[in-house]
Specification:
With 70 residues, this protein is mostly helical. It has one domain. It is rod-shaped and about 95 Å long.
Length: 70
């Protein structure tokens, strides 16, 4: 392949290669299973906390309405 043609092809393909190939930094910054487990535990804590908070609010509203009704 002539050098001029090879350079033109390389110029065309360079953006595609840059977008698709992972660098060492990309691989070093991947989440590990331990990272994902930690995030899952945090999400579960927040979810159960929110459910507990909503339960307290609803019970408070029911008690308040029961007192007003008497």
């Amino acid at each position: 392949m002539p050098e001029v043609q090879a350079e033109a092809l390389a110029d065309e393909l360079a953006p595609l290669i840059d977008e698709r190939l992972a660098t060492k930094d990309d691989l070093a910054n991947l989440a590990t299973r331990a990272d994902l487990a930690e995030v899952k535990a945090d999400l579960m804590k927040w979810t159960f906390g929110a459910i507990g908070f909503q339960t307290v609010i609803v019970l408070g509203a029911v008690i308040a309405l029961a007192r007003v009704g008497h």
